[in-house]
Specification:
The structure holds two protein chains of two kinds.
Chain A lengths: L1 H26 L19 H9 L2 H32 L5 H11 L4 H14 L6 H26 L2 H9 L4 H12 L1 H17 L2 H6 L8 H6 L11 H23 L14
Chain B lengths: L3 E10 L2 E11 L4 E5 L6 H9 L6 E6 L2 E2 L10 E4 L11 H11 L4 H14 L15 H13 L5 E5 L7 H18 L2 E6 L2 H7 L2 E6 L2 E6 L1 H6 L4 H6 L6 E9 L5 E5 L4 E3 L12 E6 L5 E4 L9 E12 L3 E8 L4 E7 L9 E5 L6 E3 L11
Helix pairs in contact in B: 2-3, 2-4
The chains are: A mainly alpha, B alpha+beta.
């Protein structure tokens, strides 16, 4: 039983980590060495990493991605917390229907909304700006944020809210001073998911931006060009991929500790 | 402190009526217990007083103020919840200070109030702890402290002790009673536990199906329940009921023929107009006397033979489960040293003036004797 388990774990690890390992190895090689199938890099060098920042505005691309993903998370969570309070705690007619509609929004394939969204963004004058991306990313981030937070908010003990109401707190105070701290784990996990989605998104980023200055990382990597149109600069692309994956891994590790249950322990009963 | 006055208060949830036309006064400085089985509307009544639920009809007065349309925070009440409802991310100090801070009191005033209340409740050493680091009893004290610092006109308790274990419950019950006397506070206390009700209350409201069945001092309700429901609800073990019919024997006076072969003499004063009525006779377990069957002819007005089904020895007292002729089971509470055993045939008797008679609709027939 035990050896079998470890074998399975090993296989899964190999399956999921090997591509990343291969990217690291490739990113350290240049020229023809790239095309030798070596498990260890021959003649390892960090030259690729230097070149992506020197030859391209890659630093700028990373900054754009941070701004877009960060802005998306901030906006989505702010809106979702408000919506979740209404949907989770306030009884009103059509609440179930509204939740279903919100869910339905996330069912549309990206391509289906692409052209309509393009018109909208052009009409709003957001084309080729980071706001276009933040705005359009609400389409995928809001539905699941609202759902996760609504469910979480609904499960918070009602008596805590009532105690706060008797203490003289209005809805805004209840949400900001009582619920938000209790929802930290839910906020961390939904925020992280929203960040990942925004960070990795390609199609909208490609469509709604034009110039290098507002490009985000996934598009920038895809558009990294070699010396000639016949050369695909694998080394640069791998170096760029490794560079943008590291922050994500750091983020996940950082927030992993916050995504813990039991924060509400002690609130009710024993 | 102030009294709470309810005038025709009703509450409906859609088509369901939770409270029906309740008019009651909870006197200034008294502890009023609202008692009833679950689902009787007692918590709803408390929530309507608190303002957490809106009354569908009627007015609510606290002191001389009509608070019917005021939000909870403006009613000058404080509430202790069954689950304590402490803010889990705040320290004990912040839990107690939250309301005062929102009310815009100065830092120094908040600190002074919280420390005073904490000292009173003996939680002054715990002010920096989070709720999860507290025991059940300590959480209960913090919840009470949060109510105390608001210095409300009325304290509302919603089954505050039901999450505590038995020993702690007795202790906290004592402390709530002591606190109430010390502060001279008006308290409204909801519970389904009749022991809490009997021990704590200056006055009890017994509720059923959204109505107040009876209100009064605990012992008055215990001794003179107005109907079968109240009679059966108060007391453990509960009151025994046996069906019977009132029979007029002319010269020999009035009596009750119990459905299962027993007989109860009614005093001469009893009204003959009741003759022929089908009734229920109620007797509290401690009012029943149980003796070994003897043929000496004495029966003290009540004659009923029974078989001992089970003897429960609790030390200080013994509960006898008896099967009277006809199969109905009753319970008698006798001394701890009884020599009666399972399977024995016994004679059950009682003094007529402690029995309760109820008519077919369950209302008390007064007076019995």
């Amino acid at each position: 039983m035990r050896p079998g388990l470890w074998l399975a774990v090993g296989l899964i690890l190999l399956f999921s980590l090997f591509p990343f390992y291969w990217a690291i190895v490739s990113s350290l090689e240049t020229g023809t060495a790239l095309f030798d199938a070596d498990l260890l890099p021959s003649g390892a060098t960090l030259r690729n990493y230097g070149e992506i920042f020197a030859a391209q505005p890659f630093g700028r691309n990373i900054l754009n991605s941070l701004l877009v993903a960060g802005g998306t998370v901030a906006l989505a969570l702010t809106l979702a917390v408000g919506a979740a309070y209404a949907l989770g705690r306030v009884a009103f007619r059509g609440r179930g229907l509204l939740l279903m509609v919100i869910l339905a929004v996330s069912m549309f394939p990206q391509v289906a909304v692409l052209s309509g969204l393009f018109e909208l963004i052009a009409a709003l004058g957001l084309y080729n700006s980071l706001w276009a991306l933040i705005f359009s990313y609400m389409i995928f981030t809001l539905p699941f944020s609202v759902w996760v937070l609504t469910v979480f908010m609904r499960d918070l003990p009602r008596e805590i809210e009532e105690a706060a109401i008797i203490d003289g707190a209005g809805s805004f105070t209840v949400v900001t001073r009582i619920f938000l701290p209790l929802m930290a784990p839910a906020l961390a996990s939904t925020g992280l998911l929203a960040f990942l989605v925004a960070w990795n998104e390609f199609l909208f980023a490609l469509t709604f931006t034009l110039s290098d200055k507002v490009r985000t990382v996934p598009v920038a990597i895809a558009l990294i060009s070699g010396q000639s149109q016949y050369e695909i600069p694998w080394g640069h692309m791998m170096a760029a991929s490794v560079t943008v994956t590291l922050p994500l891994i750091l983020l996940v590790l950082l927030f992993q500790r916050r995504i813990v249950s039991g924060l509400t322990a002690g609130a009710v009963k024993g | 402190m102030a009294q709470v006055r309810l005038e025709g208060v009703a509450k409906r949830f859609g088509p369901v009526s939770a409270l029906a036309d309740i008019t009651e006064t909870m006197a200034d400085g008294e502890l009023t217990v609202i008692l009833g089985p679950s689902g009787c509307g007692k918590s709803t009544l408390l929530r309507v007083i608190a303002g957490l639920d809106e009354a569908t009809a009627g007015r609510i007065f606290i002191g001389d103020r009509d608070v019917t349309d005021l939000p909870p925070a403006k009613r000058d009440i404080a509430m202790v919840f069954q689950s304590y409802a402490l803010y889990p991310h705040m320290t004990v100090f912040d839990n107690m200070a939250f309301g005062l801070k929102l009310a815009g009191r100065s830092r120094a005033a908040v600190r002074a109030k919280v420390e005073e209340a904490a000292k009173l409740l003996r939680i002054d050493g715990l002010l920096d702890r989070k709720p999860r680091a507290l025991s059940g009893g300590q959480r209960q004290r913090v919840a009470m402290g949060r109510a105390l610092v608001r210095e409300p006109q009325v304290f509302l308790f919603d089954e505050p002790l039901s999450n505590l274990d038995a020993a702690l419950r007795v202790e906290m019950r004592f402390e709530i009673a002591a606190l109430q006397k010390q502060l001279g506070a008006t308290m409204v206390y909801v519970t389904h536990d009749q022991v809490e009700a009997m021990t704590l209350a200056d006055r009890i409201l017994v509720m059923r199906d959204g109505r107040v069945e009876q209100s009064g001092a605990p012992l008055d309700i215990y001794r003179r329940p107005v109907n079968r429901f109240v009679a059966g609800f108060l007391g453990t073990p509960g009151m025994n009921f046996i069906d019977g019919r009132i029979v007029d024997r002319g010269e020999n006076g009035l009596g009750i023929a119990l459905g299962d072969g027993g007989w109860i003499d009614l005093p001469l004063a009893a009204e003959t107009r009741l003759a022929g009525e089908v009734i229920q006779v109620g007797g509290r377990p401690e009012d029943l006397m149980v003796e070994k069957e003897r043929d000496d002819g004495k029966h003290g007005g009540v004659r009923l033979s029974a078989e001992v089904l089970l003897v429960e020895r609790l030390g200080a007292e013994t509960h006898l489960h008896l099967s009277v002729a006809g199969g109905r089971r009753i319970i008698a509470r006798v001394g701890g040293e009884t020599s009666l055993r399972q399977g024995e045939t016994v004679r059950v008797s009682a003094s007529v003036d402690v029995l309760h008679l109820f008519d077919v609709s369950g209302d008390r027939i007064a007076p019995v004797g």
